[in-house]
Design brief:
InterPro entries: Homeodomain-like_sf, HTH-type_Tx_Regulator, HTH_TetR, MT1864/Rv1816-like_C, Tet_transcr_reg_TetR-rel_C_sf. It holds the Pfam family TetR_N. This is Transcriptional regulator, TetR family. By secondary structure, this protein is an all-alpha fold. It is built from 9 helices and no strands.
Protein backbone atom coordinates (compact mmCIF):
# COMPACT_ATOMS: atom_id res chain seq x y z
CA UNK A 1 0.00 0.00 0.00
CA UNK A 2 1.37 3.40 -1.01
CA UNK A 3 1.61 6.51 1.16
CA UNK A 4 -1.40 8.15 -0.50
CA UNK A 5 -3.60 5.08 -0.02
CA UNK A 6 -2.50 4.82 3.61
CA UNK A 7 -3.38 8.49 4.23
CA UNK A 8 -6.80 8.05 2.62
CA UNK A 9 -7.48 4.97 4.73
CA UNK A 10 -6.34 6.75 7.92
CA UNK A 11 -8.61 9.70 7.13
CA UNK A 12 -11.58 7.36 6.52
CA UNK A 13 -10.83 5.49 9.75
CA UNK A 14 -10.69 8.77 11.70
CA UNK A 15 -14.05 9.90 10.23
CA UNK A 16 -15.59 6.56 11.15
CA UNK A 17 -14.16 6.80 14.65
CA UNK A 18 -15.45 10.35 15.13
CA UNK A 19 -18.96 9.29 14.07
CA UNK A 20 -18.91 6.19 16.31
CA UNK A 21 -17.75 8.23 19.31
CA UNK A 22 -20.35 10.94 18.63
CA UNK A 23 -23.13 8.34 18.53
CA UNK A 24 -21.87 6.72 21.74
CA UNK A 25 -21.81 10.10 23.50
CA UNK A 26 -25.37 10.73 22.36
CA UNK A 27 -26.50 7.36 23.70
CA UNK A 28 -24.96 8.24 27.05
CA UNK A 29 -25.85 11.93 27.31
CA UNK A 30 -28.42 12.82 24.62
CA UNK A 31 -28.27 14.92 21.46
CA UNK A 32 -28.47 18.25 23.24
CA UNK A 33 -25.17 17.70 25.06
CA UNK A 34 -23.10 16.70 22.02
CA UNK A 35 -20.23 19.05 21.19
CA UNK A 36 -17.05 19.04 19.14
CA UNK A 37 -15.05 19.48 22.36
CA UNK A 38 -16.62 16.36 23.92
CA UNK A 39 -15.91 14.32 20.80
CA UNK A 40 -12.29 15.52 20.74
CA UNK A 41 -11.84 14.70 24.43
CA UNK A 42 -13.36 11.24 23.97
CA UNK A 43 -11.03 10.29 21.11
CA UNK A 44 -8.10 12.06 22.80
CA UNK A 45 -7.34 14.38 19.90
CA UNK A 46 -7.43 18.15 19.63
CA UNK A 47 -10.50 20.02 18.40
CA UNK A 48 -8.76 21.03 15.11
CA UNK A 49 -8.43 17.32 14.23
CA UNK A 50 -12.23 17.03 14.30
CA UNK A 51 -12.50 20.13 12.08
CA UNK A 52 -10.07 18.51 9.62
CA UNK A 53 -12.75 15.88 9.01
CA UNK A 54 -16.03 17.74 9.57
CA UNK A 55 -16.90 21.38 8.95
CA UNK A 56 -18.93 21.64 12.17
CA UNK A 57 -21.19 19.71 14.53
CA UNK A 58 -24.08 19.93 12.04
CA UNK A 59 -21.96 18.07 9.46
CA UNK A 60 -21.45 15.27 12.00
CA UNK A 61 -25.18 15.19 12.71
CA UNK A 62 -25.91 15.05 9.00
CA UNK A 63 -23.60 12.06 8.49
CA UNK A 64 -25.10 10.26 11.47
CA UNK A 65 -28.61 10.86 10.17
CA UNK A 66 -27.56 9.42 6.81
CA UNK A 67 -26.25 6.33 8.62
CA UNK A 68 -29.68 5.98 10.22
CA UNK A 69 -31.51 6.33 6.91
CA UNK A 70 -29.23 3.75 5.29
CA UNK A 71 -29.79 1.31 8.14
CA UNK A 72 -33.57 1.70 7.93
CA UNK A 73 -33.52 1.32 4.15
CA UNK A 74 -31.58 -1.97 4.39
CA UNK A 75 -34.22 -3.33 6.77
CA UNK A 76 -37.06 -2.22 4.47
CA UNK A 77 -35.34 -3.84 1.49
CA UNK A 78 -35.33 -7.14 3.41
CA UNK A 79 -39.11 -6.82 3.87
CA UNK A 80 -39.48 -6.13 0.17
CA UNK A 81 -37.59 -9.29 -0.75
CA UNK A 82 -39.38 -11.42 1.84
CA UNK A 83 -43.01 -10.44 1.16
CA UNK A 84 -44.44 -10.52 -2.35
CA UNK A 85 -47.98 -9.78 -1.17
CA UNK A 86 -48.36 -5.98 -0.79
CA UNK A 87 -50.57 -6.24 2.32
CA UNK A 88 -48.03 -8.43 4.10
CA UNK A 89 -45.24 -6.14 2.91
CA UNK A 90 -47.01 -3.02 4.21
CA UNK A 91 -47.55 -4.67 7.60
CA UNK A 92 -43.89 -5.71 7.64
CA UNK A 93 -42.76 -2.18 6.73
CA UNK A 94 -44.85 -0.73 9.57
CA UNK A 95 -43.40 -3.29 11.99
CA UNK A 96 -39.86 -2.61 10.77
CA UNK A 97 -40.31 1.16 11.07
CA UNK A 98 -41.73 0.81 14.59
CA UNK A 99 -39.01 -1.59 15.72
CA UNK A 100 -36.26 0.53 14.17
CA UNK A 101 -37.50 3.64 15.98
CA UNK A 102 -37.41 2.04 19.41
CA UNK A 103 -34.25 -0.01 18.91
CA UNK A 104 -32.44 3.04 17.52
CA UNK A 105 -34.07 6.06 19.21
CA UNK A 106 -30.98 8.22 18.79
CA UNK A 107 -30.98 7.71 15.03
CA UNK A 108 -34.75 8.14 14.76
CA UNK A 109 -34.74 11.38 16.75
CA UNK A 110 -31.98 12.81 14.58
CA UNK A 111 -33.43 11.57 11.28
CA UNK A 112 -36.80 13.19 11.90
CA UNK A 113 -35.80 16.10 14.14
CA UNK A 114 -37.63 14.83 17.23
CA UNK A 115 -36.99 17.10 20.18
CA UNK A 116 -34.10 18.80 18.43
CA UNK A 117 -33.39 20.95 15.39
CA UNK A 118 -33.09 18.99 12.15
CA UNK A 119 -29.49 18.36 11.20
CA UNK A 120 -27.63 20.40 8.63
CA UNK A 121 -30.30 22.77 7.33
CA UNK A 122 -30.12 23.41 3.62
CA UNK A 123 -28.87 19.93 2.71
CA UNK A 124 -31.40 17.80 0.91
CA UNK A 125 -31.82 14.26 2.16
CA UNK A 126 -33.35 12.10 -0.54
CA UNK A 127 -33.00 9.22 1.92
CA UNK A 128 -35.70 10.94 3.99
CA UNK A 129 -38.23 9.62 1.48
CA UNK A 130 -37.03 6.01 1.51
CA UNK A 131 -39.76 4.85 3.90
CA UNK A 132 -42.40 6.75 1.93
CA UNK A 133 -41.23 5.04 -1.27
CA UNK A 134 -41.36 1.58 0.31
CA UNK A 135 -44.83 1.99 1.80
CA UNK A 136 -46.00 3.75 -1.36
CA UNK A 137 -45.10 0.75 -3.47
CA UNK A 138 -46.97 -1.57 -1.09
CA UNK A 139 -50.04 0.70 -0.90
CA UNK A 140 -50.15 1.02 -4.69
CA UNK A 141 -50.01 -2.79 -4.91
CA UNK A 142 -52.91 -3.18 -2.47
CA UNK A 143 -55.00 -0.58 -4.30
CA UNK A 144 -54.32 -2.37 -7.60
CA UNK A 145 -55.13 -5.82 -6.14
CA UNK A 146 -58.37 -4.48 -4.65
CA UNK A 147 -59.22 -2.72 -7.92
CA UNK A 148 -59.82 0.42 -5.87
CA UNK A 149 -59.55 3.95 -7.16
CA UNK A 150 -55.98 5.15 -7.00
CA UNK A 151 -56.87 8.84 -7.22
CA UNK A 152 -55.85 9.50 -3.62
CA UNK A 153 -52.89 7.14 -3.36
CA UNK A 154 -50.49 9.99 -2.54
CA UNK A 155 -52.81 11.11 0.26
CA UNK A 156 -53.05 7.55 1.60
CA UNK A 157 -49.26 7.16 1.65
CA UNK A 158 -48.91 10.43 3.55
CA UNK A 159 -51.69 9.50 5.98
CA UNK A 160 -50.17 6.08 6.71
CA UNK A 161 -46.72 7.53 7.42
CA UNK A 162 -48.22 10.34 9.49
CA UNK A 163 -50.07 7.91 11.75
CA UNK A 164 -46.99 5.75 12.35
CA UNK A 165 -44.64 8.66 12.89
CA UNK A 166 -47.16 10.43 15.10
CA UNK A 167 -47.60 7.44 17.39
CA UNK A 168 -43.84 6.86 17.61
CA UNK A 169 -43.28 10.56 18.36
CA UNK A 170 -45.90 10.57 21.12
CA UNK A 171 -44.32 7.54 22.76
CA UNK A 172 -40.75 8.86 22.43
CA UNK A 173 -41.45 12.38 23.62
CA UNK A 174 -43.67 11.44 26.53
CA UNK A 175 -42.03 11.63 29.93
CA UNK A 176 -43.88 8.94 31.81
CA UNK A 177 -43.07 6.31 34.37
CA UNK A 178 -45.79 4.11 32.92
CA UNK A 179 -44.56 1.50 30.47
CA UNK A 180 -47.43 1.19 28.02
CA UNK A 181 -45.34 -0.27 25.19
CA UNK A 182 -47.76 -3.15 24.61
CA UNK A 183 -50.76 -0.84 24.40
CA UNK A 184 -48.95 1.48 21.96
CA UNK A 185 -47.91 -1.48 19.80
CA UNK A 186 -51.53 -2.70 19.80
CA UNK A 187 -52.68 0.75 18.69
CA UNK A 188 -50.14 0.61 15.87
CA UNK A 189 -51.19 -2.90 14.80
CA UNK A 190 -54.90 -2.06 14.91
CA UNK A 191 -54.32 1.16 12.97
CA UNK A 192 -52.34 -0.63 10.26
CA UNK A 193 -55.03 -3.33 9.93
CA UNK A 194 -57.83 -0.76 9.74
CA UNK A 195 -55.89 1.28 7.20
CA UNK A 196 -55.29 -1.75 4.96
CA UNK A 197 -58.94 -2.78 5.24
CA UNK A 198 -60.02 0.61 3.96
CA UNK A 199 -57.71 0.73 0.95
Amino acid sequence: MGILERKIRQKENMRTNILAVALQLVKEEGWQSLSIRKIADAIEYSVPVIYDHFENKEAILFELSMDGFRLLDRLLEKDKRKYADPEERLRAHAETYWTFAFKNPEYYQLMYGLGMPCSSPGKAKPEFNSFRDHIGEAIEGIVKDNKSSDEETCFKIHAFWSVLHGLISIVMMRCSDIDDTQMNKKVMDDTVNAFIKNL
